[in-house]
Structure formats: C-alpha cells, structure tokens
Specification:
The protein is α+β, with helices and mostly antiparallel strands. It contains seven helices and 23 strands. Strands 1, 5, 8, 9, 12, 13, 16, 19, 20 and 23 form a ten-stranded mixed sheet that branches. A hairpin with a 5-residue loop joins β17 and β18. α1 packs parallel to α7 and α4 runs antiparallel to α5. The two termini are about 35 Å apart. The structure holds heme C. Heme C (HEC) binds next to α2 and α4.
C-alpha cells in the first residue's frame, strides 16, 4: 500500500510542477498593437463566442468592432471574467483539455494595449481572418469516415423570443436503445447555425437504472455538456460509458436572448464501440454532494460551507470536474484525502458564476490517479449576503431545491475505476513520460 501511495502522490506532484513550469508563453511586447499582438489572441480565445451567430453580445473580429469595447475588455480580462474560466490559477491542477483561459502574458498584452490607447498598428500585420464553419457538421463522424453519429438524440423544440430573458428548457427524451451499448465519443451541437445565438449552454444527463453505479442506483449521471467552443468528447483510450436499454436523456438547456425569434433543438450525437468490443475501463459520471430535502440550510445574510465525502473503494482516475450550484454559489473545491491522511487540492473554482456551467476536463497526464481508500472531499461555499452579485434576496433562508432561487451543492465528477495492477501500471507509465519530457526540456 505505501508504495501505491508514494507513486500516486509523486504522480500528482510531478503533474503540478511540470505544468506550471511549461506554461510560459511568448514575451509581452513593449507597445502592443491590435493587428500584430491582440487580434491573434482574440481569434484564438474570444471569437468562438464573440462573432455573429454565436452567444456573446458583440463581435470582436475586426479593429472597428473591438475598439469601442476596449475599456470593458480590459476590465473583464484583467479580472479573469473573460474568457469564462473559473478555475483558481493558484490552486491544484492547471492542465486541462478544454482550457479557454488567457495566460498571464496574454492578459498583460491586452491590458497594456488598452492603457496605451488601444492603437490599431500596421494593417499589414493583421492575421488572416479565422474561418468559422457556416454549415452544420459532425466532427467525429468525419474522423471515422461515417456520415453521422451512430445515434442522434434531439431535445424538444424551443422558441426563444427576441429580447426574452434567460430560460432553462428541461425536456426528457427516450434514447430508444434496446440493448446495452458502450459509448466511445459524444458530440453535442445546436440543431441549426442560428440556434448558436441562443444556446448558451446545454447539459445532457443520462437517466437509467444501473445496479452497478458507484452511487445510489437511481441517481442520474451527467452524460455530457455542451458549451461554445467545445468539440467532441472522446473517452480516454480503452474506456467507455455504458448506456442501458430503456435509458432516457434529461436535458438542461440554457437559452439566452438572440435578438430575434429563434426556434431550435439541441442534438446529442453518440458514437458506439462496435458490438462485441468492450472497453477495459468504464467511466462513471458521479454526482458528489448532498441532495434532497434538508441537504442544505443557509441562514439569511450569511456564508455557508457544505462538505461531502465520497470514498473510492477502488483505485481510480478522475477525468473531469463540474461544480454545480445556483445563484448563491460562491466557490467549490475538489480534494483528495489520501490513505496516508494527506489532503491534496485537486481543483478549486473561485468566483463561481451561475451563468457558466463549465466542466473542467483534465489533460491526459494531469488527470489525478488516486489509490484505493482515497476519500474525495467536495467543499461548497454559498454566499447569501448582499455582496453576492445576482443574489435574489439575502434576507431569506435558502434550502435545497431545483428552482434557481433554491440551492444545490454538488460536483459532477467523471471517475474511471482501475484495478490495483492497472493503477500501478498507469502511475509508472505516467512517471516515465514525465521524466522523459523533463529530460528533453533540460537538453
Ligand atoms: C465561451 C464564450 C465566450 C468567450 C470564449 C469569451 N466571451 Fe466575452 N462574453 C460572452 C458572453 C455570453 C457575454 C455576455 C454575458 C456576460 O457579460 O457575461 C460576454 C461578455 C463580454 C464582455 C462584456 C460586454 C459588455 O456588455 O460590457 C466583454 C468585454 C467580453 N465578453 C470580452 C471578451 C474577450 C476579450 C474574450 C477573449 C479574450 C472573451 N470575451 C471570450 C461569451 C464569451
């Protein structure tokens, strides 16, 4: 056991060290210009949302479009509110598959640019316009050489009226599956290009009665989530999720104002492993947190911490983390209490924002490997004071419930269980890769 723990810890430790060292990007120019220094950052980190037919209120593709927003851009970027990415940069794992945040140099470049009067610079420096798809495509189907996913499940149509407030649309749709199938990839998209203007975010939960689920058998599991800029969700090698006959999809779709009446659905494209091919590892999306009446009790005008413990009865790799709270949600952290009693912060989301429900997907060599007997600890902070932006009323008691004015305090955590042998082998293989890449960097 002690060797397992040592390996597990050092794998974690190495992951922290290597990645913070390699996060160094290009240097910050003394006099940044829009065309040479800022436009490339906007193309890479903002245009996914800030262009016509996407969800942000304004386009940021040209100097003429961006210049009037310079002050606001400086404020949002400097406060790390834009791009939306709420992982605390000072705590825990920093390497993710879907990181859309800016690094420190990019922030400094933008801030300097605005402080120096947001100059355009030489038009010849302007990078070629980034090309965004104008047709609907299934990305992973192209990779596999098939026309579309093996199974497509659509939410029910919703019309978002011009100027309407944010709306949550939550239909439940049968999958129609008649036999168990192993899922190797999931791809979600709004049903039309226009639909992208109103589809702020979409979660798909799988509802199925699963006697082998690690938590209570009847609880739903998050299947996938869609957010702008997020592509295909591939399972890690030799891993899959199991869909059972009779399963249903529970949608939670967040529509926002698109400036015109738009009717759309969200499409969930599912790719299966071929029949008879069973992946070695099964991924479970587990809801970790207290649920039900009495689970949360927040006094008026107060801050509250809610804790939840989830023991790992087998070794495991943690694939992703998605905090879930409502309007008074302030922060959440995911910690591992190792069998030695040492506690490691895996991730901390500070300044949680109900408008953004992001799943943070760990990079392959950063996804924590944890030995059997580890306890996952989820800590959730709620802020029921007037200081919390968007708090509908700090003078009331708040309890658990599904309405946005009620609260929740759980994390969706994607867990792959490993046998002790596989865990050992994974830890050693990762350590070898990291040692090799450190040696290469030193040469
Ligand atoms: C994932 C989508 C997304 C990405 C990526 C993104 N934004 Fe935004 N942005 C939004 C949405 C939606 C809003 C409107 C809601 C809000 O204010 O939070 C917004 C609002 C803003 C605002 C405030 C506008 C106002 O009304 O004052 C600024 C400024 C901004 N974004 C700048 C940026 C910059 C600069 C980047 C890239 C470095 C960026 N955003 C990346 C979605 C995004």
């Amino acid at each position: 056991m002690s060797r397992d723990v040592r390996f597990g810890l050092s794998a974690l430790g190495i992951a922290f060290g290597v990645f913070s060292a390699s996060a160094v990007a290009a240097e910050v120019p003394a006099s940044p210009t829009y065309t040479r220094d800022v436009a490339p950052i906007f193309q890479e980190k903002c245009e996914a949302c800030h262009r016509p037919d996407s969800i942000a209120p304004m386009s940021l593709r040209t100097y003429a479009e961006a210049r009037p927003w310079a002050r606001s851009i400086r404020a949002r970027v400097d406060a790390r509110q834009m791009p939306p990415w709420h992982i605390d940069k000072a705590l825990g794992i920093q390497k993710f598959k879907n990181d859309r945040s800016l690094n420190d140099d990019q922030i400094e470049t933008i801030v300097k640019w605005v402080d120096q009067g947001a100059p355009q610079g030489d038009p010849k420096d302007m990078p070629a316009a980034r090309v965004w798809p104008t047709t609907q495509e299934w990305e992973y189907a192209k990779v596999l050489g098939q026309k579309e996913p093996d199974l497509i499940i659509r939410s029910t149509p919703w019309t978002q009226k011009a100027g309407a407030n944010d709306t949550w649309h939550t239909p439940i749709v049968a999958t129609g599956l008649t036999e168990p199938r192993w899922v190797r990839a999931v791809e979600t998209r709004p049903g039309t290009i226009k639909g992208r203007k109103i589809t702020h975010h979409a979660n798909a939960d799988i509802l199925q009665i699963d006697p082998d689920a690690p938590a209570a058998a009847m609880t739903p599991g998050r299947f996938t989530e869609w957010a702008v800029g997020k592509g295909v969700e591939l399972m890690r090698p030799d891993s899959g999720m199991l869909m059972l006959p009779g399963s249903r999809i529970g949608w939670d779709i967040h529509y926002s104002n698109g400036g015109e009446d738009i009717t759309d659905v969200v499409e969930l494209g599912i790719y299966f492993y071929p029949k008879g091919q069973e992946p070695k590892h099964r991924q479970h999306l587990v809801r970790m947190g207290k649920t039900g009446p009495g689970a949360i009790d927040i006094a008026p005008n107060s801050l509250q911490l809610t804790e939840f413990y989830f023991p790992l009865r087998q070794a495991a790799r943690i694939e992703s983390f998605q905090p879930h709270m409502h309007l008074r949600g302030k922060a959440q952290s995911l910690e591992a209490v190792l069998p030695t009693g040492q506690t490691v912060v895996l991730s901390h989301v500070a300044e949680f924002d109900f408008m953004w429900h992001s799943a943070y997907v760990y990079a392959d060599d950063a996804a924590p490997l944890l030995p059997k007997g580890t306890i996952i600890k989820v800590k959730t902070w709620h802020d029921n004071t007037a200081a919390k932006r968007g708090n509908p009323d700090p003078n009331v008691w708040v309890g658990y419930g599904g309405r946005t004015v009620d609260e929740m305090a759980h994390a969706w955590v994607n867990v792959t269980y490993l046998s002790d042998q596989d865990y050992d082998a994974e830890v050693r293989a990762r350590q070898d890769r990291l040692t090799r890449s450190t040696q290469q960097q030193q040469q």
